[in-house]
Design a protein that fits this description.
The chain is an alpha+beta fold and 303 residues long. The protein has helices at residues 2-25, 27-63, 76-84, 97-108, 113-120, 139-147, 159-201, 203-211, 216-244, 246-257, 271-274, 276-302, and strands at residues 66-70, 89-95, 128-133, 152-156. It folds into two domains: 2-60 and 163-302, no CATH class; 65-157, Alpha-Beta Plaits, CATH 3.30.70.3040.
């Protein structure tokens, strides 16, 4: 019982000293927490956007179609079985030239189909195939295999769109890494300065504790806990802001991609993956806060 009582007294003392340091920090506490909060919030946004782009890329194979135009003398039903047997082909749809002609007239707003045929004579269109791949990565391979088939005239697919999404991914990653690096250094500097100023304000108390035999670990542990607390508060605030910004993030992602026919997907994550981001923000916040405090304490103790 005595050992438990001593342990509880030590814990109470550490908590009291930690919150005493927070009171003495004043507005510097807000500067440290807000800097770290902004850093973690931007990291969270970067990851959410990156996951959204990844989900969109993964679904792209089902949204993009490979348009295959045949030679005038070939019919789509003849080539459909060959295309359907190719690897990574999920669906093949035949568009006859008659269907394409009627669709074109409707889109042009022409009601008198017979008069149009009289003016143009024979239907100038050709049969076509609309092919869907089972994944985005397979689009190029499927398109190349179809080009090699006899009777195929032209093949088109959204290769530029795939490249654009890859560029967006690279831009998000580079931007996130750059911002994270700059703000991490800023957060460490602010927290370190805050802890050092608090240590300086309590220098006389520290000297008295040293004179009565208190160890350095016992003296400076509350300051380290204070930095750790900065990290916890910042991580909780950043996670709350990320949750509150979900709709804005979705709209921002749609503006980044800006392809009207392409549906921007939301990343569907398991329960474990859902908790990955808040736990990562918490770990990052505690690590930066504790590291900054250790740097400040080491410099102060070394004087």
């Amino acid at each position: 019982m005595q050992s438990l009582s001593r342990l509880l007294n030590k814990i109470r003392y550490l908590l009291q000293e930690t919150f005493l340091g927070l009171r003495r920090g004043g507005w510097l506490n807000w500067a440290a927490v807000s800097t770290l909060l902004v850093l973690l919030f931007l990291v969270g946004i970067g990851l959410e956007l990156s996951w959204g782009v990844d989900a969109t890329v993964q679904s792209l194979g089902g949204q993009l179609e490979i348009s295959v135009y045949l030679e005038p003398e070939r019919q789509g039903v003849e080539l459909q079985p060959q295309v359907a047997q190719l690897p990574h082909v999920a669906e093949v749809k035949v568009i006859t030239k008659d269907q394409a002609w009627r669709t074109l007239l409707i889109e042009m707003g022409i009601q008198d189909e017979a008069a149009m045929e009289t003016q143009l004579g024979e239907n100038p269109l050709v049969d076509a195939l609309r092919v869907k791949a089972d994944s985005t990565e397979a689009l190029g391979e499927v398109a190349e295999r179809i080009r090699q088939l006899e009777g195929v005239d032209e093949v088109y697919y959204g290769d530029r769109i795939v490249e654009q999404l890859a560029q967006i991914q690279d831009m998000l990653r580079l931007g996130s890494l750059t911002l994270t690096g700059v703000l991490a250094l800023t957060a460490v500097a602010v927290i370190t300065t805050t802890i050092r100023l608090i240590v300086m304000a309590r220098r006389r108390e520290i000297e008295v504790m040293q004179l009565v035999g208190a160890t350095a670990a016992w003296i400076y542990l509350p300051f380290i806990l204070q930095g750790c607390l900065f990290g916890v508060i910042s991580a909780v605030g950043a996670w709350g802001l990320v949750l509150g910004s979900q709709q804005l993030l979705q709209e921002l992602l749609e503006q980044l991609i800006a392809l009207p026919f392409l549906k921007v997907m939301q990343a569907e994550r398991s329960q474990l993956e859902f908790w990955f981001l808040p736990l990562m923000l918490l770990g990052m916040g505690v690590f930066l806060g504790t590291t900054s405090s250790l740097i400040a304490v080491r410099k102060s103790a070394g004087r």
